[in-house]
Design goal:
Blueprint: H1 2-20, H2 24-103
Length: about 120
């Protein structure tokens, strides 16, 4: 039993030694991964800056769009108001004209218009 326990201990030590020891390829790959991770971070930062700059550049256009939309709403309101007023006046004048024409014809019945 002692021999098996000793063999097991030695085996565990060998495992720990081999796991603790980094192979040159492993070290190289770790360094490459670290380098690429840093590069990726730099690229992401550059991309964020470019996107932020684009947003800043189009901000005046967004403000202009909002202004134009507001002006369009105001114009629509004015046009609707004018249309309502014109319809109201047209109906009122139409009623007045109908009453005027029915009471007094625009021509003198004693002198009919000339016909060709």
């Amino acid at each position: 039993k002692k021999e098996l326990l000793k063999a097991l201990e030695e085996n565990e030590k060998l495992i720990q030694q081999r796991l603790g020891k980094s192979a040159p390829t492993e070290i190289k790959l770790d360094l490459e991964l670290e380098r690429l991770t840093k590069r990726l971070s730099v690229i992401k930062d550059e991309l964020d800056k470019i996107r932020a700059k684009k947003q800043d550049e189009v901000m005046p256009l967004h403000v202009r769009s909002m202004d134009l939309q507001e002006r369009l709403r105001n114009l629509d309101t004015q046009l609707n108001s004018i249309t309502f007023d014109l319809n109201f006046l047209s109906e009122k004048k139409g009623n007045d004209l109908d009453a005027e024409f029915s009471a007094n014809p625009p021509y003198n019945p004693d002198y009919p218009p000339p016909y060709p």
